[in-house]
Amino acid sequence: MANDNVVLRFSDVTFLYGEHRPILDEASFSVRNGSKIALMGQNGAGKTTLFQLITGALQPKSGGIFTTPKEATIGVAKQVVAPEHKELTVREFFASTFTDVPYNLDKRIATVLDAVNLVTDLKKKVKAHSGGQQARLLLAYALIQDPDLLLLDEPTNNLDQEGIDHLTGFLMMYEKTVLVISHDADFLNTFTDGVLYLDVHTHKVEQYQGNYFNVVEQIAERIERERMQNARAETEIRKKKEQAGVFAHKGGKLRSVAKRMREVAEAAEESMVEVRREDKTIREFAIPMQEFPYDFSGKILDITQVGIMKDGEHVTKDLDLTLRKGSHVLLAGPNGIGKSTLLQRIAGNTAEGITIGKDVRVGYYSQDFATLDYGQTAYACLEDAMEKKDDQVLRASAAGFLLDGKVLASQISHLSEGQKGLLVFARLMLMKPGLLILDEPTNHINFRHLSVIAKAIDGFAGAVLMVSHIPDFVSQIRIDTTIDLGKL
């Protein structure tokens, strides 16, 4: 339960990436102790950057960031495991968060693993865990510090429904302060009591009280009020300018009247509020299927067996499944059974018992964006996917995914996770695959875009093999066959 004590305060904070990319412009807000706050904003607005400012990983250009008490501890559950941590064992991973490793480390690890509902071997390497298990490890890593302020960056990514439910219950009972970035609206609405809205255009932070859905409604109502206010002002401005023009032509004393009217019109223009351009939604798009030769067999993907993890052991299960044009298959099963590993091996054509049709082009959405070259620019990434290079087509396609010229010129490593996700979808559209392999395609994506993406997948004429733990998203896509690996 929140109280009146402020645990975090931003005072006129300004932060820029380089000279021409502002993130915050004299932003001010405060967070009360014990509150549960959702951090909202369009992909690329700087939500993760704001977290880095809170932890001190980044420093503001001006303004102040204060915690109460000054030595308040901050725990961060990041979106993905850092590359340098993947080779560590679970015990080494948790030990790395301490300057002085506590004597009771194993007991503390057991406590936080129980809190996130994860059973694992402390000698097991972090990279050997599934995406969902790594998400739980990241949360436990933040909790082991018993922080005064807990920062969660897309904590539901890769979690199955059981994991999401467990996390929701934990956060509802958690007594300390939480700031969470998430595009899962239902998850946020369950436990949050306020919203910080980072406006990508004004670079200000607006603060709202109430649950998530109520705040979204408040924002929509505010925008409508601002539009109506401006419409009235524009009518008055136009009227005064027309009158000023008439009086100016009459000459004499009426010129002074015309001058006053122009001054009134200018004052009205200055009083107009800047209507916030609310989060944009990507344009509707289609993913074209590759053109197959006349002698194509029709088999896009042939599966006779799959490898999965059961009771900690790798086992092989027989399966008789052929994907042809228009086949839409959902791969299901609990975290840790090996869904992502299986998709990765299929995409790389290294999975035993699974054959990709001759010359079939594979479009792969990896949950950790492993297919992207982070040293490339976004433009080069898209250009590489095109059979026929066309600058105009590339830029028009990218614009539909809210990737403007500035983003296209940026290295992929500098993009937000949400922008990387949209970049992959733009790439899939330009490459024209025969087979779509989608591993948690909702990860990092603003919920406003999901219905558009679902429609594109639903309409894909080639074959689709997909993993997703978001029932509402899956319900919008035609699924012909569901393979539950846990029941094989």
β-strand percent reads: 15-25%
**Radius of gyration, whole Å:** 26 Å
Query: Percent of residues in helical segments?
Result: 25-40%
Number of strands: 17
The strands making up the biggest β-sheet line up spatially as 5-6-7-3-8-9
| Cα-to-Cα separation, first versus last residue | 45 Å
Structure annotation, total helices: 15
Uncertain runs: none
Q: Quick check: average pLDDT?
A: 86
Outline, from the CA principal axes? globular
**By helix and strand content, what is the structural category?**
alpha/beta
Main beta sheet: strand number and arrangement? 6 strands, mixed
Task: List key phrases describing it.
36% helix; alpha/beta; 5-stranded parallel beta sheet; 488 residues; 6-stranded mixed beta sheet; globular; 15 helices
Short précis:
The chain is 36% helix and 22% strand. By secondary structure, the chain is an alpha/beta fold.
Would you kindly provide a written description of the structure presented here, covering whatever features stand out?
The chain is of the alpha/beta class. Helix content is 36%, strand content 22%. It is built from 15 helices and 17 strands. The protein has helices spanning 47-55, 90-95, 105-115, 131-143, 161-173, 185-191, 212-250, 254-271, 339-347, 378-385, 391-400, 405-408, 417-431, 450-458, 471-474, and strands at residues 6-17, 21-32, 36-40, 62-67, 74-77, 149-153, 177-181, 194-198, 205-209, 301-310, 313-323, 328-332, 354-356, 362-365, 435-439, 463-467, 481-484. The strands form 4 sheets. It has a 6-stranded mixed beta sheet, with helices on both faces. A 5-stranded parallel beta sheet has the order 14-15-16-12-17, sandwiched between helices. The chain is globular and about 95 Å long. The protein starts with 5 loop residues before the first strand and ends with a strand.
